[in-house]
Amino acid sequence: MKKYILNTFIVAALLSAATSCGDNFGTMNISPNSPSNPNTASILTGALRNVGAAVTGIQPGLYVQHFGDVTYIEESRYKTVNFDYNGFYAGPLMNLQFIIQQNTDAATKSNAAATGSNANQIATARILKAYFFQFLTDRWGDIAYSEALKAAGDFNPKFDKQQDIYTDLFKEWKEAAAQFDGGKTVQGDILLGGNIARWKKFANSLRAIAALRLSKVDPAKGKAEFAAAVADGLLASNADNVKYGYLSEANNEHPLYNNYITTNRKDFAVASTFVDYLNKVSDPRLSAIADKNINGAYRGVPYGVFPPTWKAQDVSLAAATMRQQNSPVNVLTYAQVLFAQAEAAQLGWISGNAKTLYEAAIKASMEQWGVYTADGFDKYIAQPDVAFTSAKAIEQIATQRWIALFYQNSEAWAEWRRTGFPVLKPAEKPLNGGTEIPRRMAYPTTAPTLNKTNYDAIVTSQGADDQYTRVWWDKK
Amino acid sequence: MKRRFTLPAAVIMLLCSISLFAQDRTITGKVIADDGSILPGVSITVRGTTRGATTDSEGSYKIAVPSGSQLVFSFIGFTNQEVTVGTQNVIDVRLMPDATQLQEVVVTALGISRDKKALNYSVQEIKGDKITAARDPNVANALAGKIAGVQVLGQSAAKFGTPNIRIRGVNSLTGGDPLYVVDGTPTDISQVNMDDVESLSVLKGPSATALYGNRASGGVVVITTKKAKSGEAKLDINHSTTLDMIGLLPKFQNEYGGGYSQDWETFSFNPAIHPADWKAFEGQKLLDYSADESWGPKIDGSPHRSAFSWQQGPEFGQLTPYSAQPNNVRDFFNKPISNNTNIAFSKGGENFQSRVSYTHIITNGIIPNSKQAKDFISAKNSITLLKNLTANLNINYTSTKGTNVPADGYGNQTIGSFNQWFQRQLKIEDLKNYKNPDGTFRSWNIGGPLDSRPKYWDSPYTQMYENTNSRSDTRLFGDFGLTYQFTKYLKGMVVARRDQQQYKSDAIIAYGTLNAGGLGAYSNYLQNQRENNYEGLLSFDKTFGELSVVANAGGNIRYNLVETFGQATSGGLTSPGFYNIAASKDRPAISNNRFERRVNSLYGNVSLGYKDIVFLEASLRNDWSSTLPVANNSYLYPSLSGGVILTELLPRNPILSYAKVRAGYAQVGTDVGPYQIFQTYTTGNAFGSNATQYLPTLLPNADLKPGLSSSYEAGIDMKFMNNRFGVEFTWYQNDNKNQIIPLPVDPTSGYRNAIINAGLIQTKGLELHIFANPVKSERGFNWDFDINLDRNRSKVIKLADGLTNYQLGGPTWRTLTVNAREGEDWGLLVGKKIRTLDGKRVVDANGFYIVDDQKSLGSVLPTFKGGFLNSFTYRNLSLRVNTDFIVGGRFFSTTRMFNAYAGLAAETAGLNELGNPKRDPVSAGGGVLLDAVTEDGKPNTTRVETQELYEDKFFALNDQWTYDQTYIKLREVALGYNLPKSLLSRVKVKSANISFIVRNPLLIYSAVGGGLDISESETFWTEGGQLPPVRSFGLNLRLSL
């Protein structure tokens, strides 16, 4: 009897173990570690955190010889050929695309509107998305655009022609600026605080500068787009400048503060090319841009010379005043807008006096760097190098813009490539297999390894995937 | 011959014959084992008759025999012994263990012991003694080379790491750890106490692991721990003391010191910035202290100012000779003493067996101030009640405490600096004085005379004594189970198992040191996890005439929970020296996570044996997994195998003693980790008061199906010359279908990875195990060896629509990636390659190699690998010598690249082919001439500057630093001596053994060279700043009381 009970017990235990199999496990597979519902304001903040990185990525600043390497004389000699844009696609671009979608889809739009009207969020996201795409196409040329950001819908996006991308960017900025409504202010906007007027000026100014990119390749379209952008209203003073503000916290600190102070690496100093030119024209901005070396002199780091015979203490680092932990960086400035208009006026694209605009641009730049004095300015613009000469106007505008764009690395490189001014001497012994200053960044290795068919096609049509194939608007 | 005396045959004989014979004489006696333990169940037969007896639980027997007959004593695992009956009435016998026969019974899935010849798949088992000869505390290290098809992913003992293993190479795209099962309870490899291991079986393919299902796709290591035997009372003590030392370092140059230029810098006094009394320093020789490379001035013994002569203390202002320090790196490392002690009590009676064991291991690191203490406590108990009901309780407790455990990795502050970024002339004594009296830190790598803040490196001693870390891992695992023997043939078992862990770690970056902006940091991490398994099993085992049947059916519920909690200060500490999250300057980073999953399973298997000639086995398992979409969360998979013992069909012959052919087919289903089905959003670092959120970069998949791998396996096992020589050969193929992988996709799609069911990944392999006993002399000399060889090839047959490349790793150093590509061998390295012309490297007009990017640099998969194990015994002496090796397969070394880049490597100095110093300018006859041809095929005649070659051109030139993995490593040597019984019996010691052991004695050959032991590499394809191997010399004493 005892044995029987025991047997029954054991068989029952086995059976109960067996019968509990195959249930649907309830909610066990729902993650408690990350939210299932998005907050588009936080997603916008996350996307905007990439604006600083887009502006300050150092290589273009080395190409235009604003900066030079201090110890590892590599990037100033073009060591890196392939650059990675993946962080922008699987990052801010995808997140901005998501904001647009959340505010568009019927199922999600009313929830999304809790952090800003649907129209305002979409407009903001479109302007930014176009901003990032312009940043990418200016660097890499033809890129994934129309088929990008479709997730499982297309794991092999084709590369679009830069010309087509530019055409769409103009449309995007134009439509987006017109899309803002009087609804709820967008939350999470750490760039412009949800200020619609400023977003519109930003979008129009981006259009104007993008239009000027076409000065050589398609002046007719450039002219039309430029005039339209001016008519819609550009930045009108330094108060309108779009700046990305870093914070006094480790996660959001200024990149040069990080390089100079936090890590004590001091990898980059102001280049000799830049310091020497500013010294030559006694530019008051030098003191706002560069520090003195250990011996109390402004000495730019010799550009692209290997091996180095100096240490960080011997050369001028970027000025402490511009690289505090919470210093802002300039995304788009009034000076840029004035330089663009000066050039447009010189090209005959708009009415207006090129000289006046040029001088106003220099003044705005000095004010922006905090070194403007009326006397100093008058003297500065009177000297032979700077004094406006119509015959040399394009070079003068470009050279002054080159100064004004210090630490707006990508933009400075784009403008240098477009205009060819100032004339820069390439680094000695480049490491990228070429002899000239790079005019493009090569695609990341993911392009040939993960999207080979489209990659091969674009290399055939655009040209070799190196640093010397010119992007569409970069016409000789 | 041996077959005749295996246990079942003997028992059957015995049962039939016991009462049939007239009693001539009665012999009694006792049978004990070599180590003095009592042997119950030994069969005693009278040669030439069918008469027999067995020993009882006290090891005693009684048998009636005619005079002059011969008694044969046989017991599984021991050599048979024959005794001629003379006039004596008492015959006591001591049986010696039989190494060959020890391998006959193996533990298989679910802990079921099976006669190996009944198995139709490859299983290799090794007994404790063979694994632990060198007392390596890590299972994986101890397994190296010992089992065909097992690859050890080693770790330097300098970081006390737990190595892992891969069974049958890369079975899947992402590789996979095997499942470790200790007495039926799945646990972690680090929890295995080698002193408790009785035997270890490696179940390699799905045929063997089918019953484990889900998690067994990487193979299973089944570990059986020691238990008390009936009638035994034993105290075992095992102690070893080892002296550790650094095993290997790169060959450094000692001709040039720190700096980027050979020209001396001299001090130039500037009253505006220098204190007035520094005027006396005018003209003194300076080095570039900010350089962490050694392209500096030629070491000439001249007086110079060291970095320390600019820092506080008595060295300030002193000139010291600029002299070579060839042993500076070696001198950094300690030669510590470590101890490993185990004590185990076991006692067994008729109805209970109990064993308790305690192990204490103190390992002091070769890197100063690092150590690990590990304690294992285990208890294994079994009580039989009511004759048929047995209760088992096994409890294992492990505590591991690590102090300042160093890490591998490119930027690590010890070897990462010494081998990659250092100044060769530094005296290690100077670095030891790492802290000033005022609490600030000293470094060799400072900005300059006026800037003593560390530039790229603190003193390595700062790292080890100030940037401290601690970790503690407490683990408890075991099971409670009941077994009921319903009938002689049927038994039922229910078991509850748990494995739970609490892991805690914290780390300090000292205020004022290099990292965290000099503002200090503190972080801690806590992880709790547990796994519960509830299982029930019915087992049937009966022989019907010539047909033997073994069948099992059961079910299992597995539940896993992982909870993590991590915090770190951000932006520095508000209060120097106060290492607490509360001291965080910015909002601290805090995260907590919880992962939960459950798998329910039902399974069963049947094994049939006909006449000990033909064996068939089939199994079926169904899993239900919580991590898969509801529609696809149930999956069923079968296995089927068969084998024939050919020798049973052949006439007896003296050459071929045993031969079996076997073949099998099996499937294993796999699921995925938790939370990979539904879209969620990631919370990022806040921007001030603004929270951030991101889409994850891994695209979840709501339509996931379970992965299914099908495997085919066939093999032949043969033994020759009375089992003295043997060979086991296995061929297998795994077809991994629908394997669930985070496939990298072009990120322009908006995602970096997508969870998908991949198409088909195929693995094929060959395994060969040869064992032999070539010398067995009458005078007691014996030589056994094992050779294990295997070859494994994985290929991507089909990935997914439109996708042909799975990037497994990289890019690193600009463009180097490792890939699994459709149609190519797994693990293809792709990167910058030096152009060749008819096998010769090609240079450009400047004498540098011409380089093409995105070229294949070969697969990381070795051509073959294996081990060679030797065991020599002579009377009481034994010697074990174990070697393992890898041939072929490519590997990229970051250490070698920077060892040369930074001018530390011997190859960067010395003389060139003209007899001039390489580092002299080319214009002065220096420089290097690369062995190459120009583009038109003519020999290269253009010498290039040495520094430019290594710093500029060879940096990130992947091809230059990619090597064959080929190595031969003498892994362990153990020389043992068994103290004679005559001596021991007087002091009541059953057995005693003293051994001299050496671990890691010699890397006999390595193609990578450069002082690296890539058998201890961090990853399968690359390393950077890898910690050095540790060589250990030790004495081990084993006592049985």
From TrEMBL, chain A:
Task: State if Methyltransferase is listed as a keyword.
Answer: no
Cross-referenced InterPro entries = SusD-like_2, TPR-like_helical_dom_sf
Q: Which UniProt keywords apply?
A: Lipoprotein, Signal
What is the annotated signal peptide range for this record? Answer: 1-22
The protein's matches in SUPFAM superfamilies, at most eight in alphabetical order, are given as: TPR-like
The record's section on Pfam families has: SusD-like_2 (PF12771)
| Designated name of the protein | SusD/RagB family nutrient-binding outer membrane lipoprotein
Native organism is Runella aurantiaca
UniProtKB/TrEMBL annotation, chain B:
This protein is called SusC/RagA family TonB-linked outer membrane protein
Q: Does the keyword Cell division apply?
A: no
The record's GO CC annotations read: cell outer membrane
User: Where do the TonB-dependent receptor plug domain residues begin and end?
Assistant: 116-220
What keywords would UniProt list here?
Cell outer membrane, Membrane, Signal, TonB box, Transmembrane, Transmembrane beta strand, Transport
Q: Where is this protein found?
A: Cell outer membrane
Please list which residues make up the signal peptide.
Answer: 1-22
Q: NCBIfam families of this UniProt entry?
A: OMP_RagA_SusC (TIGR04056), SusC_RagA_signa (TIGR04057)
Query: Which protein family is named in the record?
Result: Belongs to the TonB-dependent receptor family.
| Chain ranges of the TonB-dependent receptor-like beta-barrel domain | 428-881
Classify the protein's membrane topology as the record does.
Multi-pass membrane protein
Q: Which SUPFAM superfamilies match?
A: Carboxypeptidase regulatory domain-like (SSF49464), Porins (SSF56935)
